[in-house]
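input
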Amino acid sequence: MTPQPSQDARIPPAEGGGSAGVWADALLALRLFAADPHGLGGVVVRAGPGPVREAWLDRLRDALGAERPIRRMPPGTGDEGLLGGLDLAATLSAGRPVSRTGLLAGADGGVIVVPMAERLEPGTAARLAAALDTGRAGPEGASARFGLVLLDEGQGDEAAPAALADRLAFRIDLDAVPPRLAAGPDPASEDAGPEEGAGGDPVALLCTLADAFGIASPRAPILALRVARALAGEGAPPPALAAARLVLAPRAERLPEPGPAPEPPPPPEGERTETPPSEGEATEPAPPEDVVLDAVRAAIPPRLIESLLTGGPRASQARAGRGGRPEAVSRTGRPVGSRPGDPRRHRLDLLATLRAAAPWQALRRAGAQDGALRIRRDDLRVRKLRRRVETTTVFCVDASGSAALERLAEAKGAVEALLAEAYVRRDRVALVAFRGRGADLVLPPTRSLTRAKRGLAGLPGGGGTPLASGLDAALAVALGVRRGGGNPLVVVLTDGRANVARSGEGGRARAGEEAIQAARAVRQAGLAALVVDTGARGGGAKAVADAMDARYLALPRVDGGTIGAAVKAMR
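output
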């Protein structure tokens, strides 16, 4: 049994206080962050647009004051906007390089608010993380000691970039806070009494708690220690407990397992072995680590608790926003910068070309009578374009045997769950079913949910298991998707017990050998794959997964939601 806190260990009033406790913790995090924006990194605010979020941001502006800037980063801000660069108009007018300050350096000493943080591009997140680490930004290394507020508006498994969120001390969830609470007066801070039950070395205590909750990043206990020291400097008890609740609880990766209860030492010989009923003596308090462990566990957000109990994908590990892998070099798509190149083969980036040529104009026009621009071949810049490559999930389903109806129902649920996201993520789904003497393409790559249901509704089951033919058909579909510029992912649902060869003849030995050969062909094609073993005992499809170099899940009772979560994790 998990040890319970002693009666003497007092917990701050924000803990376990429902929406009022969440709001009080959010305001405490705001006050600490405003006092040291760069030292504490920032805050991840998970909340949609609304009065609660705006009330929190208004209080942050008041806490920062007029002398410290608070800047909002427009969506789609590129490297030039972040880091600064050449001011083209001023450079051409002055005849010498004139630089302008970027957003990061302009927010020195203040805070940058990032809306829709779940859709941040990896490159932009990397620039922000580097500036937080070094306190510098731009080509000249200007001072950029700022804090970040990431406004996470993601739904489901969408989340702010994990590497960036790891550098921020606080994570708050305002979705459960009612607007009337945010509009009212701030809750008064109550004295929680002396820091009983959380004494000892705070460094060792916070590191122990981070390990107990499965937090691997060393930044978490470091940030928690900074928060504890800030609270101790204000004389606000108990600092270690409050720091663990604010910093460590929202980062929990697992629930700590309770340790065995210590056995009492045996009484000396000749003394009574029974303790008389209560005579007014106090109960021995629980160890300090157990007291804080229970308090931090109680402070884990309910949404995170549910995810940890069900073993679902963590939001911090999920990819945000759009589906499909980004294609680095493309002739069509969204501009992501410029590079030297031939404008006869790619689109000319005129502004980037002028910026490259501007610093050299005074030297090139020396002795010339006209004021014309001198542009050389080395100055030419072309646009770099990036487009999203759609992902096509090819389901290869074993429709043979008495359990076919169950397997097809599982596949149907997974296909329909993935198709529900197809319009947002630009993904497609295909279905290959194998039974009897061969395999059939039941559902060509599509985004149409109506077409998918119609194709799945009349699919029969029963017969032998031509596993090799099913893998061959799935490989052909996946290679066709790749030739069309897509990104294929193969998901095989089978028990691995092949008994029909490619020729349609029975025989387990030959059918098994051909299935392994077909699986190796999938690996040689370099396709990402997932094998779901639907056998009652599991393990039958392990050899197929190894030959395919695929991820293996032994889930005899797998459902569509579990398959969908595994597929999304592989994307």
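quick obs: The longest helix spans residues 18-35.
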